[in-house]
Amino acid sequence: MRSAGNAAASVLDMITPFVVPGVSTEELNTRCHDYITEELQCIPAPLHYTTSADIPPFPKSICTSVNQVVCHGIPSPTRVLKDGDIVNIDITVIKEGFHGDTSKMFFVGKPKPFAKRLVEITQECLYRGIRVVKPGAKLGDIGYTIQSFAEDNGYSVVREFCGHGIGKKFHTAPQVVHYGRPNTGATLVEGMAFTIEPMINLGRRHVRILSDQWTVVTADRKLSAQWEHTILVTANGYEVLTLRDEEQFV
Ligand code: MF3
Ligand code: CO
Ligand code: CO
Q1: Closest by Cα among 140, 95, 113, 116 to 241
Q2: Does residue 250 carry a pLDDT above 70?
Q3: 228 CA closest ligand 1 atom index
Q4: Separation between Cα atoms, residue 79 and residue 3, nearest integer Å
Q5: Which residues does a 6 A CB cutoff place in the pocket of ligand 1?
Q6: Whose CA is nearest to atom 12 of ligand 1?
Q7: Which of 25, 29, 47, 49 is the pocket-test mutation for ligand 1 (most atoms within 8 Å of CB)?
Q8: Phi, psi of 140 (to 5 degrees)
């Protein structure tokens, strides 16, 4: 899991210099796909991923979620990034049979102050959620910490999508929701691995799914941000399996 997590994190580092005005999300997908398969010798887990028989398989190797897209944005040659956009790139790789899942937000060119604040508060939501993790803590403690920080800052928390257990399978129990009440839900135990991946909206929390059956957008079409890490519960606390060099954890 550590090795898979490191591999996923390295894709976000690799793609960072290419997230600039004028690039299409398809070009970002192609670069990540080639890096994952050729450099890392890994499998891009989203490609052809299925969740149910009535939904088509996901057609690309990464998710690129721009502005009002909450998650599961499909890379496209016609989605060209422009100055002031915000975009989440979500990478999941399979290495030696295990999954590493992580995402981060990028500013395309110069961010608007309201977009910058949303992105930074959402990253802090993830970090505050991670710092709760230790044996004996409850899932509700994570959700409560994230929800209260987001709402105290005037934002809303998406309810329909959540973090998840992860390992040999991409998505397993438990569901790690990003809202909740302290001292409720399953108890964390050393050795568990799961993601925390809060989706925080500038406006209301409600979402819609587009006709492609994957793209999740805010119902009010206002901005949404998301950051994700894969976390291991250790004897004393947590290990962030998808940590990047640029991150300082204290
Ligand atoms: N990486 C996403 C997550 O964090 C899931 C993407 S599934 C896909 O759980 F099929 F849309 F790629
Ligand atoms: Co995930
Ligand atoms: Co992900």
Answers
A1: 95
A2: no
A3: 4
A4: 32
A5: 46, 49, 58, 63, 72, 90, 92, 101, 195, 197, 214, 228
A6: 46
A7: 49
A8: -60, -25
- Alpha-carbon gap, residue 25 to 63, rounded angstroms: 9
The closest-lying atom of ligand 1 relative to the alpha carbon of residue 57 is 10
**Six-digit token pair at 49?**
């991923």
* Model-wide pTM > 0.85: yes
From 33, 63, 166, 199, give the residue whose CB has the most ligand 1 atoms within 8 Å, as the site to mutate: 63
Secondary-structure breakdown of the chain: helix, strand, coil percentages, each rounded to the nearest 5: 25, 25, 45
Determine the Cα–Cα distance for residues 89 and 94; give it in Å rounded to an integer.
17
Contacts of 29 (CB under 8 A, 6+ apart): 60, 61, 62, 64, 75
Residue 141 has pLDDT above 70, yes or no: yes
Query: Is the bond preceding 111 in cis, omega lying within 30 degrees of 0?
Result: no
- Condensed to tens digits (0 to 9), the pLDDT of residues 176-213 reads 999 999 999 999 999 999 999 999 999 999 999 999 99
Closest ligand by atom to 209 CA: 1
